[in-house]
Amino acid sequence: MGEIRVLQIGNEDWNGIYQIPPEIRVDYTDCYVGASKRPYDIYFLDRLPQDGEIDFIYKEARAYTLFYTEKVRMEDVGTGSRAEWLFCCKKAKEIKTAEIGRFLKEEAFYYFSKPYGENYGIKTIAIAHGFKGSVKWEGNYSVILRGFFGEGFRQIAFWRGNLPMFQIYAMDFWLEYQKSPGVSIVMTVTKFANGSVSHVIGEWEFDEEDLKEPVQIQGEGKAGWLFFSISAKGEGELRIIALHNRVSRGSHGCFLPGGERYAASNREEAFCYFEPGDLKPPLCVYFSGYKMVEGFEGYYMMKAFGSPFLLLAEPRLEGGGFYMGNAEYEQIFVDCIRKYMKELGFSADQVILSGLSMGTFGALYYSCDIKPHAVILGKPLASIGEVAANEKRHRPGGFPTSLDVLLCQCGGLDADAVERLNARLWKKFDAADWAHSKFAVTYMIEDDYESSAYQTLIRHLKSVGAQVYGKGFHGRHNDNTGGIVNWFVTQYRKILREDFARKIE
């Protein structure tokens, strides 16, 4: 994962004061004039920052990675000062002098630069030979086990292929499953030494109480491989959906420092990451697209605009589930957007919702709740039932996740299910007032996922005063991603410049 790079700005070098682990590199300076290679993972202010330093830190540092010590007294910072502005923009946190040594030794490694997570899905699940009940596979979504599991716990399923465990980093695991009341489960994790299939160097057992939250396993200085299995007892139904694993950031966030994780009562997850930018309108909301690697998408693109931004992501199915779910799940995304609108003091006409491909559905769907100033879309997908139907008609094997979405949301794959899933967005869209919104859309003319999304959007956009404009590129859905992204970014800059008087580099 690489070393953790820390910058300390102050009057006394911490390298001569604290015992710093070899994985942590602390660069000290008494006057900061900018990073020579790349931004640091953590910034510490051990004195009040100077104006010139503020400019560099603001440009380089991610939010949630700036700390100030007790030597930076808030009475010296001053209300309305540039230092106070910097602390607000970067969500800076105070660290007590007595905690610095412990933080560098025990917490700094959570600030690694490159996040990683994946869905350890059902393709690699094997059912134990001893199970005599029924087994039903539902696409790439889940496997359902029904029957008698035993009086006591016994292995019922396991994942083929072990996961690597890093030497110094911790891993978070979230088991996505559903079960009937008569069934109880435990998840067992066995750690094998590198290069061995029999030398066990650690074992953990997590019951249902433990599994109410993500469980964490520490590297403990020993690299190895992790084997996962599920044991069950009782009688009834057990649906195993996925095992999600992520390099842990401990209490400092999820995927990115400051990243937030939410889970509905059915164990479906949603994530958001907020960066305040320069605190000026608009709030730019970006829905991540299809992602096999779990995490947020578009961080550097959105950060480059300079405006406050909110990244939204979800890890369900294979690559994502189009942000649809039950009412409880969907409310998570609405609440996240409104939460940061309130924090910034922004109204709906100071918000932009946006996304590419799978993310366009999230942007369109939740625009019906927010009524933003603008919606910016690249390769829009709106009638998701049609997207699934095209898997058979025009795109065999091209996007099987669409079939899983259809099955999960509508309980079937027939023509009626297709129509009901198509109506999921348009019923909500037609009930909204778009009189004060504009839509900027770039699309593929021969899109093999959904060729008529742009035309369908225009047909449903009936509010007087609504604006819509678009640009089409010839080709299928993934034939010209570069052109789509370029036009998408150009429209973002245009709206920020013309509608919000922002200077865009």
Please write out the topology.
Blueprint (H helix, E strand, L loop, with lengths): L3 E6 L14 E6 L12 E4 L5 H10 L5 E3 L5 H4 L4 H8 L3 E2 L5 H8 L9 E4 L4 E3 L6 E5 L3 E18 L3 E3 L5 E9 L3 E11 L6 E8 L7 E3 L6 E24 L5 E2 L1 E2 L2 E4 L5 E7 L7 E5 L11 H6 L4 E5 L13 H18 L6 E6 L1 H13 L3 E5 L5 H10 L7 H10 L4 H16 L7 E7 L8 H8 L6 E7 L7 H20 L5
Parallel strand pairs: 1-2, 1-3, 3-4, 4-5, 20-21, 20-22, 22-23, 23-24, 24-25
Antiparallel strand pairs: 6-15, 7-9, 8-9, 9-15, 10-15, 11-14, 11-15, 12-13, 12-15, 16-17, 18-19, 19-21
Helix pairs in contact: 1-3, 8-9, 8-10, 9-10
> What's the overall average pLDDT, rounded?
95
Q: Which blocks of ≥5 consecutive residues have pLDDT under 50?
A: none
The coarse silhouette is flat
Termini Cα gap: 32 Å
Tally of separate helices? 12
Percent range for β-strand residues: 25-35%
The count of β-strands is: 25
Fraction of helical residues: 25-40%
Q: What assembly state would you assign to the polypeptide chains in this entry?
A: single chain
Q: Indicate the radius of gyration in whole angstroms.
A: 25 Å
User: How would a crystallographer describe the biggest sheet?
Assistant: 10 strands, antiparallel
Essential attributes:
single chain; 505 residues; alpha/beta; ten-stranded antiparallel β-sheet; eight-stranded mixed β-sheet; 25 strands; 31% strand
Question: What does this protein look like?
Answer:
The protein is of the alpha/beta class. Helix content is 26%, strand content 31%. Strands 6, 7, 8, 9, 10, 11, 12, 13, 14 and 15 form a 10-stranded antiparallel beta sheet that branches. An 8-stranded mixed beta sheet has the order 18-19-21-20-22-23-24-25, sandwiched between helices. Strand 24, helix 11 (453-460) and strand 25 (467-473) form a beta-alpha-beta unit. Helix 8 (384-393) runs antiparallel to helix 10. The relative contact order is 0.08.
